[in-house]
Amino acid sequence: MNIPTAPVGNQNNKLKESRKGVVTEALPDTLFRVRLEGDEVDTLAYLSGKMKLNRIRVLIGDTVRVEIDPYGGKGRIVQRG
Fold first, then answer.
1. CA distance 4 to 44
2. Please, how many CA atoms are within 13 Å of residue 56, restricted to the half-sphere of its CB?
3. What are the pLDDT digits (tens) for 4-36?
4. pLDDT score of 69 more than 90
């Protein structure tokens, strides 16, 4: 009898687009306004859990990598520098 196994890893990461941007404004509760490359409009982004856990600080003017939600919500900052 074969028991199906669940796929390893998170399948949702394949749907997310990753782009670079520059932080333009720091807001309360680890929210940031980020200007993405190729866009003239700022996007809201929040700090990822691992960056919060390791206390990685993000300042205005930092270059960051942001994962964009395909449904048009907030982005998630996953890397600094």
1. 39
2. 16
3. 544 444 555 566 789 999 999 999 999 999 999
4. no
Q: Return the DSSP state at 69.
A: P
Q: Helix, strand, or coil here: 12?
A: helix
CATH no. for 15-80: 2.40.50.140
CB atoms under 10 Å from CB of 15, counted, come to 11
Q: Detail the DSSP E strand segments found in 1-81.
A: 17-27, 31-36, 42-47, 63-68, 75-80
Global pTM reads 0.78
For the chain, give every domain's residue range.
Answer: 15-80
Tokens of 20: 């670079």
Burial of 48 (0-12, 13-18, 19+ CB in 10 A): middle
